[in-house]
């Protein structure tokens, strides 16, 4: 299915030269003012003589070039690129000035002389000629283009195209579906063997976790095969040995989304971490408690008690998170330099970060210090539970502080647990109400812990940054769907449409983000490795002294943008002294294993 | 009443001979207390002045602790055995800024006294009042030995005679440092005009000046510069020959006095650099302050008088503003942090803003020299506070040598110690006059700026954070002679141990395992407040809740050991390769028909 030979540079031609390609790249240096296009990527509109503003003051100097809108990205190609400045990471799929359309939060056109300003959506009209385009990005960049010297009509067209193409009508219209289809056919992709991260789409992955953590009283259960019971749980779940499939099926109807209590992790002392949705019918509460709680107790070698923590009651809700995050984005960049710290304080984002860390540390205390099993309960079990359950495991189990371990944790507690990435990221920009930066919050929490334990993590801040950036690149299956079921359905249709042979592994034809060679060269990937890492079996993280304050530096920019417009998102985190005081002495000397 | 302390014992006398017997105060043996012998035998010429049991230390983080206090002529040592592990407080008396009695009426029967320290903490002790003399005596002993200068005693550094494998006083030699920079050369010469500190008593004896200005003219320039601090070379760019020179303000006064010699002199500095026909004068002060100095006979260079010179004010505030800012910072961080307003409280101290202005100034200087290839003259009023901060930071950005441990020691010796930063006056070593308006955290600010640089360039410095903290600790400790006195002249005849003797004898403690020695690597830090952070590891280190959960120091040492091991392996392999290729080439000559794959080394 090799189509007509493309005239424009192909995806392959700008990969870092493999030894055999050396000659080819020397022959055709990509000097022209042409966009680099991926397979299946087409130019929608373009305009010349655009000035990209490099500082907040748009009248200041800038970079001249061509602004292009494709079906994947907004691309800016400087006519006179400043001398090669190698930033420390270079993205294989995105250029220095590229922004994926999925990364756009808001497209704003401005006419200075008329004093007009309009936020553009899909299929809209624009009654004035824009003199300036401001792109507010989800990775917190704000990028401005000036059209003073550009053709007014083509400038307007590009703006409208950007707005239109960043509001896809339907999920399969996201560029990833086009790209991965072509890529699958064009390049002989390797099998799943290259991926070291367990995906938790098959019983063996869960079995390995059960064995690794010594959870002998828990079993893999496949009642949800073909999503027969719950539309949002994975096909294979882990449940107490003492509960029969039939029992689980019968009782599942009482839970929101049929999300029955499922096992997440076992402490070596036998206590288990379990997550579940709320019980839909309060009248059934007792019945359910009598069914599940004894079973979980039974799965504990010491038959310890089980504590249930209702996260809806003790943590901020996702709408609050979103509004605070928005405030954070808006305020922090507009405030003057001198007021930076207090403007960060005013957003209260760090208080939220602290709340999640603190609650997780409390759960750690119960599991580790009190030897009790913990059930995390949340109305739908798909948001707050993801954050807390993964943080708890990260704090307690050094395995999850390795790179592959961390990825498997995200896979297990977020992707397969049915976190609604599609809605929370609002990739289709259809429902602002559902948008919430939960995964971002989680990464921030990880960053905070990482800074308190600089030698405990195999991966670096750079890794966290590129992971968060990847959320806004619609090419990987990881962040595109609301549940494993939805992923399965869409990818089945996708395979059918793209003539991908039946039975082919989804991970092969639509890979997850974990295959980092898609985005970065092997050399660049070494920047994910923390040289301070002491290796597995290091001392336990988080001794409950959740009171250190730290500065977070989330360059929420794609890293290669260092040159043009870096929005540094820097802040401190303060941890309250009062609340965790009770835990202090008990956290001393946690076991290391 | 002579119960407690020996009265001014002659230096070097063993402790036992100077303690008349007494219940509390004295000990017969220096190793009296089993838990305390460790430090007693470590320090030379140390004698115990006072020891008291059942003293309460009010730790702001743990609460009241009961234990034993021991005061020597160097330190205060408190140990509480009730806790596991034992709680120990070990405080060089040099850090004490003031000792105050805390009221007695409220705590019936208790004597309470507080120590306000220069290193961001306050300590409070109390003990039962046993007899009337006791309270007075503890207080007196502390006051006496914390402020030896005010009491006609010697600072401990003069007693301390520890011998280290290396003599730190040899680290810096002005001539070799100028030689390293390529001085003398065709444009710059070394002058001995100040050999006996006659031209300027706060300058070093060795100075580098433009070749075509004879010594006689230097003296006339000195007459026009405050305190005789003429412009002299700090650093020269190895390629462009652009220079960083430092001096004090010109004595312009209200009438706008001029000095032909001074004008000619600055012209000579400009002419020494063929790359640029301009000279930048960086005045560290806010322009208002610079103008106000005219009233006192000082001022700044007018661009009319100094042709081709451009004057830039860097807006850095004076020592009083800085002292006040650090005082506010201490209020915010010690003992407790108000979490809910932490960031805005920190902001209100303006400490980071001051740090930013200093770094921004140094960056402009470094940029002018490196990118603009233009020579710069840096001054403030007297040229020993802000000027030193700016020149040394700019040099740190420009020259990778100063980012090594030894290079940094040289930088401090040169720009701070030899050029007469008034350490004694700014820190008040052993002086009880804590309200002295000459005290100011100028040097701490500089070290803070260095720390900010290490945060932005984690692989560019050979030293680690512990090195910087150690320097600041011994800035006050009065154990070493390095930071005593106000000038090279005052330090000339002083017999003390150098801090660098101690540091260089255990370099592995202070080495950054991430260090990469890039050559010709100029650092241009980002000086936005958004990139600066509070140095928690120094300012808030007393708060156990603010310490790193997992100290990285041990890990650093492991990494260093690993690196050394790998380096050794590389060396071995290289030797093997060299030997092999040597033997193979001889084989080849012996039997030319045999083909041998050449071994290549990639280093």
Automatic annotation (TrEMBL), chain A:
<dbReference type="InterPro" id="IPR010569">
    <property type="entry name" value="Myotubularin-like_Pase_dom"/>
</dbReference>
<dbReference type="GO" id="GO:0046856">
    <property type="term" value="P:phosphatidylinositol dephosphorylation"/>
</dbReference>
<comment type="similarity">
    <text>Belongs to the protein-tyrosine phosphatase family. Non-receptor class myotubularin subfamily.</text>
</comment>
<dbReference type="GO" id="GO:0016020">
    <property type="term" value="C:membrane"/>
</dbReference>
<dbReference type="Pfam" id="PF06602">
    <property type="entry name" value="Myotub-related"/>
</dbReference>
<dbReference type="InterPro" id="IPR030564">
    <property type="entry name" value="Myotubularin"/>
</dbReference>
<dbReference type="InterPro" id="IPR029021">
    <property type="entry name" value="Prot-tyrosine_phosphatase-like"/>
</dbReference>
<dbReference type="GO" id="GO:0005737">
    <property type="term" value="C:cytoplasm"/>
</dbReference>
<feature type="domain" description="Myotubularin phosphatase">
    <location>
        <begin position="200"/>
        <end position="593"/>
    </location>
</feature>
<protein>
    <recommendedName>
        <fullName>Myotubularin phosphatase domain-containing protein</fullName>
    </recommendedName>
</protein>
<dbReference type="InterPro" id="IPR011993">
    <property type="entry name" value="PH-like_dom_sf"/>
</dbReference>
From TrEMBL, chain B:
<keyword id="KW-0967">Endosome</keyword>
<protein>
    <recommendedName>
        <fullName>Phosphatidylinositol-3,5-bisphosphate 3-phosphatase MTMR2</fullName>
        <ecNumber>3.1.3.95</ecNumber>
    </recommendedName>
</protein>
<feature type="compositionally biased region" description="Low complexity">
    <location>
        <begin position="579"/>
        <end position="595"/>
    </location>
</feature>
<comment type="similarity">
    <text>Belongs to the protein-tyrosine phosphatase family. Non-receptor class myotubularin subfamily.</text>
</comment>
<feature type="binding site">
    <location>
        <begin position="318"/>
        <end position="319"/>
    </location>
    <ligand>
        <name>substrate</name>
    </ligand>
</feature>
<keyword id="KW-0175">Coiled coil</keyword>
<feature type="binding site">
    <location>
        <begin position="293"/>
        <end position="296"/>
    </location>
    <ligand>
        <name>substrate</name>
    </ligand>
</feature>
<dbReference type="InterPro" id="IPR000387">
    <property type="entry name" value="Tyr_Pase_dom"/>
</dbReference>
<feature type="domain" description="Myotubularin phosphatase">
    <location>
        <begin position="168"/>
        <end position="539"/>
    </location>
</feature>
<comment type="function">
    <text>Regulates the level of these phosphoinositides critical for various biological processes including autophagy initiation and autophagosome maturation.</text>
</comment>
<dbReference type="GO" id="GO:0046856">
    <property type="term" value="P:phosphatidylinositol dephosphorylation"/>
</dbReference>
<dbReference type="InterPro" id="IPR010569">
    <property type="entry name" value="Myotubularin-like_Pase_dom"/>
</dbReference>
<dbReference type="GO" id="GO:0052629">
    <property type="term" value="F:phosphatidylinositol-3,5-bisphosphate 3-phosphatase activity"/>
</dbReference>
<dbReference type="GO" id="GO:0004438">
    <property type="term" value="F:phosphatidylinositol-3-phosphate phosphatase activity"/>
</dbReference>
<dbReference type="InterPro" id="IPR003595">
    <property type="entry name" value="Tyr_Pase_cat"/>
</dbReference>
<dbReference type="InterPro" id="IPR011993">
    <property type="entry name" value="PH-like_dom_sf"/>
</dbReference>
<keyword id="KW-0378">Hydrolase</keyword>
<feature type="region of interest" description="Disordered">
    <location>
        <begin position="574"/>
        <end position="603"/>
    </location>
</feature>
<feature type="active site" description="Phosphocysteine intermediate">
    <location>
        <position position="380"/>
    </location>
</feature>
<dbReference type="InterPro" id="IPR004182">
    <property type="entry name" value="GRAM"/>
</dbReference>
<dbReference type="GO" id="GO:0031901">
    <property type="term" value="C:early endosome membrane"/>
</dbReference>
<keyword id="KW-0472">Membrane</keyword>
């Amino acid at each position: 299915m090799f189509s007509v030979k493309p005239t424009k540079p192909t995806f392959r031609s700008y990969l870092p030269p493999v030894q055999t390609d050396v000659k080819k790249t020397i022959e055709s240096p990509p000097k022209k003012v042409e966009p680099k296009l991926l397979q299946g990527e087409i130019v929608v509109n373009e305009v010349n003589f655009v000035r990209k503003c490099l500082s907040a003051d748009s009248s200041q100097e800038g970079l001249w070039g061509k602004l292009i809108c494709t079906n994947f990205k907004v691309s800016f190609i400087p006519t006179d690129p400043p001398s090669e400045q190698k930033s420390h990471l270079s993205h294989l799929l995105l250029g220095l000035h590229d922004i994926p359309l999925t990364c756009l939060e808001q497209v704003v056109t401005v006419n200075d002389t008329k004093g007009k300003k309009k936020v553009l959506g899909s299929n809209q009209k624009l009654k004035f000629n824009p003199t300036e385009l401001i792109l507010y990005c989800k990775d917190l960049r704000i990028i401005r283009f000036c059209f003073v010297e550009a053709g007014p009509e083509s400038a307007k067209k590009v703006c409208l195209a950007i707005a239109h193409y960043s509001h896809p009508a339907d999920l399969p219209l996201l560029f990833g579906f086009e790209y991965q289809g072509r890529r699958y056919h064009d390049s002989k992709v390797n099998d799943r063997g290259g991926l070291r991260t367990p995906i938790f789409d098959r019983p063996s992955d869960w079995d390995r976790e059960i064995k690794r953590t010594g959870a002998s009283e828990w079993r893999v259960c496949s009642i949800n095969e073909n999503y027969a019971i719950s539309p949002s749980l994975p096909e294979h779940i882990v449940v107490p040995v003492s509960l029969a499939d039939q029992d689980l099926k019968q009782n599942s109807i009482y839970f929101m989304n049929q999300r029955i209590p499922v096992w997440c992790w076992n402490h070596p002392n036998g206590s288990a971490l379990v997550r579940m949705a709320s019980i839909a019918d309060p009248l059934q509460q007792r019945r359910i408690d009598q069914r599940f709680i004894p079973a979980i107790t039974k799965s504990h070698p010491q038959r310890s008690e089980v504590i249930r923590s209702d996260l809806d009651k003790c943590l901020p809700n996702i709408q609050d998170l979103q509004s605070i995050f928005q405030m954070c984005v808006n305020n922090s960049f507009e405030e003057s330099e001198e007021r930076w710290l207090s403007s960060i304080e005013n957003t209260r984002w760090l208080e939220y970060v602290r709340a999640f860390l603190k609650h997780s540390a409390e759960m750690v205390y119960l599991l580790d210090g009190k030897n009790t099993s913990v059930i995390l309960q949340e109305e739908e079990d798909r948001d707050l539970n993801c954050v807390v359950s993964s943080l708890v495991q990260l704090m307690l189990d050094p395995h999850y502080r390795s790179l592959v371990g961390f990825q498997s944790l995200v896979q297990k507690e977020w992707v397969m647990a049915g976190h609604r990435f599609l809605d929370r990221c609002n990739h289709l920009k259809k429902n602002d109400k559902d948008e919430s930066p939960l995964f971002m919050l989680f990464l921030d929490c990880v960053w905070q812990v990482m800074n308190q334990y600089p030698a405990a993590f195999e991966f670096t801040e750079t890794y966290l940054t590129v992971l968060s950036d990847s959320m806004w690149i619609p090419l990987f299956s990881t962040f595109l769907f609301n549940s494993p079921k939805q992923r399965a359905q869409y990818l089945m249709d996708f395979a059918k449409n793209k003539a991908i042979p039946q039975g082919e592994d989804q991970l092969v034809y639509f890979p997850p983000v974990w295959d980092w060679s898609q985005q970065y060269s092997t050399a660049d990937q070494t920047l994910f490795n923390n040289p301070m890492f002491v290796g597995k079996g290091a001392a336990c993280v988080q001794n409950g002294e959740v009171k250190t304050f730290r500065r977070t530096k989330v360059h929420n920019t794609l890293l290669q943008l260092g040159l043009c417009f870096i929005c540094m998102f820097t802040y401190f985190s303060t941890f309250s002294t009062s609340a965790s005081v009770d835990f202090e002495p008990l956290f001393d000397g946690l076991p290391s294993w | 009443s002579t119960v407690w302390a020996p009265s001014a014992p002659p230096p070097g006398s063993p402790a036992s001979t100077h303690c008349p017997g007494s219940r509390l105060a004295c000990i017969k043996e220096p190793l009296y207390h089993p838990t305390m012998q460790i430090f007693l035998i470590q320090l030379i010429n140390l004698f115990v002045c006072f020891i008291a049991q059942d003293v309460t230390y009010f730790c702001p983080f743990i609460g009241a602790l009961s234990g034993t206090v021991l005061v020597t002529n160097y330190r205060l040592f408190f140990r509480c055995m009730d806790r596991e592990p034992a709680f120990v407080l070990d405080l060089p008396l040099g850090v004490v800024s003031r000792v105050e009695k805390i009221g007695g009426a409220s705590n019936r029967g208790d004597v309470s006294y507080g120590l306000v320290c220069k290193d961001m903490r306050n300590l409070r002790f109390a003990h039962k009042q046993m007899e009337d003399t006791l309270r007075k005596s503890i207080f007196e002993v502390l006051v006496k030995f914390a402020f030896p200068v005010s009491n006609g005693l010697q600072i401990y550094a003069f007693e301390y005679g520890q011998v280290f494998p290396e003599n730190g006083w040899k680290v810096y030699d002005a001539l070799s440092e100028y030689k390293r920079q390529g001085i003398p050369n065709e444009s710059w010469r070394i002058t001995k005009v100040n050999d006996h500190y006659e031209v300027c008593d706060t300058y070093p004896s060795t100075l580098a000046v433009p070749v075509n200005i004879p010594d006689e003219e230097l003296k006339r320039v000195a007459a026009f510069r405050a305190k005789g601090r003429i412009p002299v070379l700090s650093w020269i760019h190895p390629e462009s020959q652009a220079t960083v020179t430092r001096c004090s303000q010109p004595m312009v006064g209200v009438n706008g006095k001029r000095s032909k010699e001074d004008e000619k002199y600055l012209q000579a500095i400009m002419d020494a650099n063929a790359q640029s026909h301009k000279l930048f004068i960086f005045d560290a002060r806010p322009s208002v302050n610079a103008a106000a100095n005219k009233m006192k006979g000082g001022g700044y260079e007018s661009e009319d008088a100094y042709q081709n010179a451009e004057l830039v004010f860097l807006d850095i505030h004076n020592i009083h503003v800085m002292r006040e800012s650090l005082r506010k910072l201490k209020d915010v961080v010690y003992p407790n942090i108000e979490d809910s307003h932490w960031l805005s409280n920190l902001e209100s101290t303006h400490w980071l803003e001051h740090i930013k202005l200093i770094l921004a100034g140094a960056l402009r200087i470094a940029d002018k020299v490196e990118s603009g290839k233009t020579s710069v003259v840096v001054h403030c009023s007297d040229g020993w506070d802000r000027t030193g901060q700016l020149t040394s930071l700019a040099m740190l950005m420009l020259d990778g040598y100063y980012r090594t441990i030894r290079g940094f020691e040289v930088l401090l010796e040169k720009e701070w110690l030899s050029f007469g930063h008034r350490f004694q006056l700014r820190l008040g070593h052993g002086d009880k006059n804590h309200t002295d308006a000459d005290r100011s955290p100028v040097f701490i600010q500089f070290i803070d700026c260095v720390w900010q640089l290490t945060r932005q360039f984690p692989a560019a410095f050979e030293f680690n954070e512990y090195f910087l903290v150690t320097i600041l600790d011994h800035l006050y400790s009065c154990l070493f002679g390095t930071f005593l006195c106000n000038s090279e002249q005052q330090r000339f005849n002083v017999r003390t141990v150098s801090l660098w003797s101690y540091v260089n004898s255990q370099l592995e403690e202070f080495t950054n395992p991430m260090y990469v020695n890039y050559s010709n690597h100029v650092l241009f830090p980002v000086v936005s407040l958004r990139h600066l952070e509070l140095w928690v590891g120094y300012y808030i280190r007393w708060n156990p809740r603010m310490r790193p959960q997992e100290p990285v120091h041990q890990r650093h040492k492991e990494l260093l050991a690993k690196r050394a091991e790998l380096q050794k392996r590389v060396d071995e392999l290289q030797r093997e390769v060299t030997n092999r290729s040597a033997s193979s080439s001889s084989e080849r000559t012996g039997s030319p028909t045999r083909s041998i794959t050449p071994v290549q080394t990639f280093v």
